[in-house]
Amino acid sequence: MPDGIVEDISGRYRLRPIGSPHDMYVLQRQDKDNWQHVYRFTARPRVISDFEEMCTFNQTSPESHFTQEIICTIATKNGRVSLSDDYITITAGSSKRKIKVLSHEDFIQKLKDHFRIQLSYNKLKNHQ
Fold this sequence. Notes:
Elements: E1 5-8, E2 11-18, E3 24-31, E4 34-42, H1 52-60, E5 71-76, E6 79-84, E7 87-92, E8 95-100, H2 104-115, H3 121-126
Antiparallel strand pairs: 1-2, 2-3, 3-4, 5-6, 6-7, 7-8
């Protein structure tokens, strides 16, 4: 288990064991003077079928943000690029830029430039 606090462009984080024996952990993110739980997890081995229910939820539920907007994200050598309906966010090292998507054509161009995905304007427009 890592010791101490880790900091990146999105904030300060720490990992804490919970329960006894220490088979559960909580990842926390610092919010001003408080530490907020981000998620908890276990180091127990899993099989792919353990994730089926949550994958189905993320793909089909109206409560999942993945079904409510277009989102595309990719890890890069030194960061991440994320494209949504309204913005592209480019993180590289300690730099983070958020750029407004100006139109359907701009979205399609950003999809092509950053993700090598080529869609026609009509195909995208028909799915909105």
